Every structure is written in structure tokens, then in C-alpha cells.
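From the methods appendix. Each design record in this collection lists the discretized structure first, followed by the designed amino acid sequence. Records were kept in a plain field format so they could be parsed without special tools. The example shown here is representative of the layout used throughout.

RECORD:
C-ALPHA CELLS (145 positions):
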């Protein structure tokens, strides 16, 4: 079986990129990146792709992506000194939220006191704008209900 893989790899097209070499290069870029940023940020930011002039970074939450985007101009200058990144001109930052479950929470307002309901009813009655009056009465109905 090993021989079959060796033959297959020996006949690969020239345009194929050696995935192991590319993965090792991306890991080395990530290690250098982590040495250039705050350790808290480094835990939430990872190298995704390098195409010769643009480095794509993945952040695990929007807040960390924002921080990386803010630092991008300085990071470009710092990263250019690393071997193989001399042509770096752009850093793209994406948010990687795969595997994160988003739970919607419905917050039910506390019940409206009788006094507050009466005040709201009286306020709606003196409003001249019919659309605003209707909206206040709908809101009152939801809050009572």
C-alpha cells in the first residue's frame, strides 16, 4: 500500500502544492504572529491562508476579529520581516464561529402594575397622532397580556 502512495505522489502534477510543507509554513507564520501580539489575543487568532500578498486570519469571536483588524496596519509591517512574507500587503480577518451554538433567549417583561397600566392608558388617550396612539395601545395590550 505504501508503494502505491509513493507512485501516486511521484506522478503528481507540478502545479500541486505540497500540503505538508504549506501547513508547516502556516504554522510557522502563526507562531511568529503570536509572538507579535498580546497573549490574550494570540489565543483567539489563527492563520488561515497565505496567497503571496494577503494573509487571512481567523478569529474565534467578532470582538477578537475587531481587535485584529485594528492592529492590521502595524501587523503588516511586523510580519513583512518574517521569511516568505516580504510581499505582504493585506491582512483579511474572518470570524470562525463553527461549532458555537447560539441560543436565543426571550425575555418576558415583568407584569405591569395596575397603576402603570392606567397611566399608560391615559397617556395613549391624549396623544393626537393616531399611529402613535395605536402603537401605545398595542404595547399596553402586550404588557398586560
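DESIGN:
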Amino acid at each position: 500500500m505504501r508503494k502505491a502512495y509513493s507512485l501516486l505522489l511521484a506522478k503528481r502534477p507540478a502545479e500541486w502544492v505540497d500540503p505538508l510543507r504549506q501547513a508547516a509554513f502556516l504554522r510557522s507564520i502563526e507562531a511568529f504572529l503570536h509572538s507579535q501580539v498580546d497573549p490574550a489575543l494570540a489565543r483567539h487568532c489563527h492563520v488561515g491562508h497565505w496567497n503571496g500578498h494577503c494573509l487571512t486570519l481567523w478569529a474565534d469571536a467578532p470582538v477578537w476579529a475587531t481587535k485584529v483588524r485594528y492592529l492590521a496596519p502595524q501587523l503588516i509591517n511586523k510580519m513583512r520581516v518574517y521569511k516568505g512574507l516580504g510581499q505582504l500587503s493585506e491582512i483579511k480577518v474572518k470570524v470562525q464561529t463553527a461549532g458555537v451554538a447560539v441560543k436565543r433567549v426571550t425575555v418576558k417583561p415583568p407584569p405591569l402594575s395596575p397603576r402603570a397600566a392606567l397611566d399608560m392608558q391615559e397617556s395613549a388617550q391624549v396623544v393626537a397622532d393616531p399611529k402613535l396612539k395605536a402603537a401605545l395601545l398595542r404595547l399596553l395590550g402586550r404588557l398586560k397580556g
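APPENDIX NOTE: The mean pLDDT is 82.
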